[in-house]
Write a structure and sequence with these properties.
9 strands; binds ligand 2U9; two-stranded antiparallel ribbon; single chain; alpha+beta; rod-shaped
């Protein structure tokens, strides 16, 4: 019969009928208590409940089974022993509680104790993606000369992506601008192939002068390879006013090249063709690798092709109710991924999208 069971019995059932036997009975309980609370990992709350619990606590049992039904000649002895035991249990449990609290405090302090001589935990701080960094650099260059940044929808209509940009149905320029059509009908919505639609939307909403750059994602149905992807980033620019000349255009392009590639970078304009600009040019800059002396990167030409640009084709103004006779402007379009790869020496476009931290960390 365990100690706890004995507290379920009355003194009579236990055959206790003298104060001495009462005293040794309580010594047994006390000894049992001391042994239960001297364990290292004492569950303090459980011990408190099983000993001091009002309902089924051992001391309540003793009160109900031993004290209350005790014969008068034993009542006093039981009462005294019980009070001593109660005081002992409460004192020891309080002591234990303080020890446990102090232990928890010590453990917390130990946990919090910072050995300042230890090297800090390096929290790997992220970096802005190379594309993001290049966007911000390009935006900074044009914001500095009064351009404002506008963003437009990636899902566009054929009208804004083609017609309004002087690329009618069946225009050959559509071939290298094949994209993804939504709703399955060619007349339906498409993923824009350039950010130019937003220039049209801006001119529809705001009278000239206009000086905007439009950064964003664009889509082409290209087979992914080292320099092409079905999605890439562009930044296009447009300046329209009453007196913009080719010199303003050339000056702005040269300013950009010097800002982006450095003051020594030279600019070369090569005649080209875009449906929405006339005249059009490819803008080349001094190869930033060989400084123009010729190397593998610039195919020994000394020049690197940077972006396309030109004077806005007056036909475009017709779509936005701008008076082509009173206005002139220039526009440009840059592949941001390509500029980032060129400037930071990244050979493969996919590297920009594989989220390999070893690659990304190189560009803090
Ligand atoms: C309007 C009028 C004119 C935007 C232009 C280019 C030249 C150009 C290419 C660069 C690399 C596309 O990402 S790319 O492949 N773009 O070369 N873009 S002029 O001309 C405009 C735009 C809007 C209303």
């Amino acid at each position: 019969m365990t100690t706890a069971d004995r507290t379920e019995q009355t003194l009579a059932q236990l055959g206790v009928d003298s104060p001495e036997q009462v005293a040794s009975l309580f010594d047994g309980i006390r000894g049992f208590f001391d042994s239960t609370v001297s364990t290292g990992d004492l569950d303090w709350k459980a011990a408190r409940d099983s000993w001091l619990g009002r309902k089924s606590g051992i001391l309540s049992n003793i009160t109900d089974r031993w004290l209350k039904p005790a014969p008068p000649e034993l009542k006093r002895a039981v009462g005294q022993e019980l009070n001593k035991l109660k005081a002992h249990v409460e004192a020891v449990l309080e002591q234990k509680r303080l020890e446990i609290e102090a232990g928890a405090e010590r453990a917390a302090l130990a946990r919090e104790r910072m050995d300042l001589s230890l090297p800090g935990i390096e929290r790997a701080t992220g970096t802005r993606h190379l594309i993001r960094q290049t966007f911000e650099e390009l935006e900074r260059i044009f914001l500095a000369i009064g351009f404002s940044v506008v963003q437009g929808p990636e899902i566009e209509s054929p009208y804004y992506n083609f017609e309004a940009l002087n690329i009618p149905e069946h225009h050959p320029a559509r071939d290298n601008m094949d994209t993804f059509y939504i709703e399955g009908t060619r007349g339906g919505r498409l993923l824009r192939t350039h950010t130019s639609p937003m220039q049209i939307r801006t001119m529809e909403k705001q009278p000239p002068p206009v000086r905007i750059i439009v950064p964003g994602k664009v889509y082409r149905r290209d087979n992914p390879d080292a320099t092409h992807g079905y999605m890439f980033h562009q930044i296009e620019g447009l300046a329209v006013d009453t007196d913009i000349t080719f010199c303003d255009f050339k000056g702005t392009v040269e300013y950009f090249v010097r800002e982006f590639l450095g003051p020594k970078a030279k600019t070369r304009l090569r005649p080209s063709y875009f449906p929405f600009t006339e005249p059009s040019a490819e803008v080349d800059a001094t190869c930033h690798v060989c400084g123009g002396s010729g190397c593998r990167v610039c195919k020994f030409s000394g020049w690197i092709e940077l972006f396309g640009a030109g004077m806005v084709d007056p036909a475009v103004y017709g779509f936005v109710k701008y008076d082509a006779k009173k206005l002139s402007g220039f526009a440009f379009g840059m592949g941001v991924d390509r500029l980032a790869m060129m400037k930071y020496g990244v050979s493969e476009l996919p590297l920009l999208y594989q989220n390999d931290a070893r690659f990304l960390r190189q560009f803090p």
